[in-house]
Amino acid sequence: MHDFEHRLQDVLGNAYQVERELPLGGLGRLFLATEVASGRQVAVQALPPDLAGRLDTGRLRAAVDRVARLKHPGVIPLIAAGAKDDIVYCVWPHPHGESLRDRLVRDGGLASDEAQQVLHDVADALAHGHAQGVCHGDLRPDTIYLAGSRATIAEFGVRSALNAALGAEGGMDERADLHALAVAGQQMLAGRGGPVAEVVARALSIDPAEQYPSAAALRDALGAPPSARRRRRRAQLAALGVLALLGGLVMWQHLRGRPPLIKNLIAVAPFEILDPEHAVWREGMVTVLSANLDGAGPLHAVSPTMVVRRWEGAADAASAAALGRATGASLVLFGRVVRAGGDTMRLTASLLDVQLGTSVAELQLADPDSRLDRLADSLTMRVLRELGRSRPIAAVSRTSLGASSLPALRAFLEGEQHFRRSEWDSALAGYQRAIELDSTFALALYRAGVAVGWVRNASDSLSNAYLERAAAHNHGLPQRDSMLLVAESLSAALADESEPDFWRHYRRLYATTAEAAHRYPHDPEVWYEYGDVRYHNDAFSNEREMREAFDRAITLDSAFAPAFLHPIELALGAGDAVAARRYISLYLDLHSSDVYADAVRLTRRLLDPRLARAPETEAILDTASVDLLLATQSSFRGWADTLDTWVRIATLLVDGPPHRPRPPAEAAAYANNMRTALAYRGRLREAWRRTGERTPWLFAAMAWVGGTDPDSTMRILAASLRSDAISPRAPAVLASPLWAERGDAAALATLERRADSTARAARRPDERAFAHGIVEATRALEALVRGDTTAAVRGLEAMPDTVCLRCVVHKLELARLLDARHMDADAAQLLAHDSPGFVQPTDAFWELYRARLAVRRGDRAAALRAYRFVRDVWRHADDNLQPYVREAREYTAGTSERD
C-alpha cells in the first residue's frame, strides 16, 4: 500500500478497508474498498489535498447532507463523506456494470432505443436532484454507469458540494447538467438521426429560448423509454413466463441444454455400501466428503441434497458422468465400501473427469469398520493430493464436520438423510441425538434449529436457542455450511428490534446470503436461504427478488420441497392464482407427508371455487388441528380473494368449530392474527371490537385507515406520549402522523422534545440514531401542520428506512401527500417499493396511490392491476372505505370495456 493509501486508511479508520486504486477520469483519486460492517464493496473518492485548507467545513457538511438525502433508483447514493488533515473523501457503493465511457470506447455508440433509455434515466435522476437543490456538476460518460438496460449516475453532487464549501457556487447550475447530458447523448448517437437526435439537438441549442427549461422537460420530451413500452408486453407474458419456468422444470435440461461443466466443481456420488449395518454412510460419504472438499483451493462441491436427488444407477463411470452433466460438475468422485474380512472395511474410489471421460485417480484405502469417518478424511487428502497436480490446492486438514465423536457424527448423518426429504420430525430426532453426544456440535445445533423452525415456527424460542449455540461454536466448519449457519443465527438474532446490533446484524445477514449465492450459484439450498432471509426480513428487498430466488432454487432442484412454500404465498399475494396452483402441483408431486403438505392440499381445495364451500371442505376445516390451520392461512395472508379466506381461517383459529369452541386462553393466542386479517380486508369496526392487547403497529395502521374510535385513539396517543419511552413500540411514535392530520402542533412539539432528549441521553448508537430519526420525522409533520407541504414532503422523504421498521404510517402519509399534489416523480420513486410492512391493513391504500399514479402516467395495465386489488380486498369493507372501492370498480369496469 502506497503512502497516500496508508494516510487515507488512517482517515477512514475501521469503517472501510482500502483494497486498491481505480482509474478516475474526474476529480482526485478513486479507490476500491470494503465496508467492514456489511462486507459490500464501495468506491472511495479522495479529493485533491490542496482543497482541504480552503474548505468551509460547515458549508461542506450542509452540502453533503443535501446530496445524501437524494433517493432515486438512478442515483448511486452517497454513503459517507468527511475531511481530515489534507484529505477530503466521499464514499459510494461500488457501481455495477460498465461506465458509458467504456461502452463508447468499445462500441463507438449505442443503438437509438438504448440511447433513449439512458438519456431518460439520467434526465429523471437529474430532475430528482434538481428538485432538491442539488446539481451534479460533473456529469460525463465516466460518471454514467450502464447495468442491464438501465443507467445510474455516480458522484452526484460532489463538485457542487465542493464549490459550496469553497464559496464558488455561482458556477454550478441546472443548465450545465442538461448541456452535459446532451453532449453525452450526442456521443451515444454518433451522428444518427431520428426523434432522439432531435431532442438532443434542441438541448444543445445556443438559443436559451430553444433549450429545455428543466431536466423533467427534457425527460418528457424523450417520450416513454423502451422499458416502459415493453412493460405491457411483460405483464401479458408474466403468467406464461412463470408457467414456462415452473412447468418446464422436467424438460429444462433438454430444452436449454445441460449446464456447462465447471472446471473446479466436484460432485461426490452416493457410495455403494453393501453392509446394512453401515448403510448410513451411503449418503454419509456424500455429506462428509463434500464438506471436506468444498473450499479447498478453487474447489466447490455440489450440495449433497442436489447430488442425492440427481443420482441414478450404480457406482460406475457411466452413472458418474451422468451426474456430472446433470449438476455441471466437471469432476465426480464415486466408489464403494466393502468388508475385507474381520472388522476391516476397504474403500475403493474413482475420480472422473467428465469432460474427457477419463479417470483422474483410482484410490484404495482400508480401516476398521469403527472408523469410517477416518476413511473419509483419508480419502479427502488423497483426492486433494491428486487434484493439486493441476490446481493450486494447499494442504487441507479437516475433522468430520466438527463432530467430536463417531456416534455423534453418525446420528447427525441420519438426521441429514431425513432433512433432505423434508421429514422434519425424524431429522430433528437425529440432530438431538447428536447434540446429546456432543453438545458443541455446531452443524447439528444449526440443523436442529432449522428443523424446530419447520416443526413449530421460525421464531420458536427453542429454535433460536439452538441457533445461538451453533453460532458460538462456528469454528473451522466447511465454508458453505458456515455461511448458512451464520445466516440462520443472524435471523434468530433479529427477533428483537431493540437489540443494540439489530441493523448491523440485518446488513450482515443480507451480505452473508448474497456472498453465499455468489460463491455457490448452483446450490439450491443457498438460493432458498437467500430468498427465505429476504422473505422474513424484507426491509431491503422486494417480493420480486424473493420469488426469483425461490424459482432459482426450484430450477436447480425441483425436488427441494421447502422452496415451493413461500412462492405459493407470494404468488397469491401478487394476485397470480395460476402461478400459485402451479407451485402447488409441483410441490404435491413430491409426495411430502408433513403438516405443510396437508396445508398445501387444503390450500388447493380452498383455491377451487367449486370446492371452497363444499361440505367436505367444511368438514376438513372443522376437524383441522391448529398447526394445520396456521400453516394453511399463511398462503392467504396477502391474497385479495373474494371469499375472505384468511379471515375465514383466522376466525376458526380464535372461535374454533361450532361443535368445539376454542378455550379463551387458547383463543387469545390467535386474537391478534384475527384482528390483522379483519383489518387487512377493511372490516375495521369488527377488528376494533375484538378485545385483548392492541399491538401498537396494528393500532397505528388501523387508526390511519380510519378503523378506530377517534376519541379512544387520541386518548391512547396522549397516554403513550406521557408514559411510554421513545421507542419503535410506542403508539405515540408509530401513529404520530395522526396528530398532523388533526393539526395538533402541541402534541408534535412534545414528541419532538422527548425524542430530542432521548437522543441526547442515549448511550447506544442505535438508540441515538432512532431518536434523531424521530426528531426529523416529527419536524416534517410540524411543517405539515404549518401548511408547509414542501418541507413536510422533503422531511418525510429523508426519513431513513432503517429508523423504524414499523413506522408504516409515515410512509403512507408521504404517499398521500404526493398523490394529492400530483408529485408524480417522487410518488413513482416511493411507490416502486413494495408496501411497507409486507402485509398491512394499509396495503390497499398503497395500491390505490399506485393506481392513481398509473392512470396519470397512462399505464392502464398497472392501473388495472392495482385497482383490482383495491376492489377485491375491500369488497366487504366498512362504509368509510367504500368510496375507494367504487373508484376502483368504475375504473376496472371502464377499462375492461375499452380493452
Describe this structure as you would to a colleague.
This protein is an alpha+beta fold and about 900 residues long. It folds into 6 domains: about 5-95, 2-Layer Sandwich (Phosphorylase Kinase, domain 1), CATH 3.30.200; about 100-225, Transferase(Phosphotransferase) domain 1 (Transferase(Phosphotransferase), domain 1), CATH 1.10.510.10; about 260-400, TolB, N-terminal domain (Rossmann fold), CATH 3.40.50; about 400-475, Tetratricopeptide repeat domain (Serine Threonine Protein Phosphatase 5, Tetratricopeptide repeat); about 480-560, Serine Threonine Protein Phosphatase 5, Tetratricopeptide repeat (Alpha Horseshoe), CATH 1.25.40; about 690-899, Alpha Horseshoe (Serine Threonine Protein Phosphatase 5, Tetratricopeptide repeat), CATH 1.25.40. The chain has 43 helices and 14 strands. Strands 9, 10, 11, 12, 13 and 14 form a 6-stranded mixed beta sheet that branches. A 5-stranded antiparallel beta sheet has the order 1-2-3-5-4, sandwiched between helices. Strands 6-7-8 form a 3-stranded antiparallel beta sheet. A hairpin with a 4-residue loop joins strand 13 (about 345-355) and strand 14 (about 360-370). Helix 40 packs across helix 41. The longest helix has 22 residues, at about 225-245.
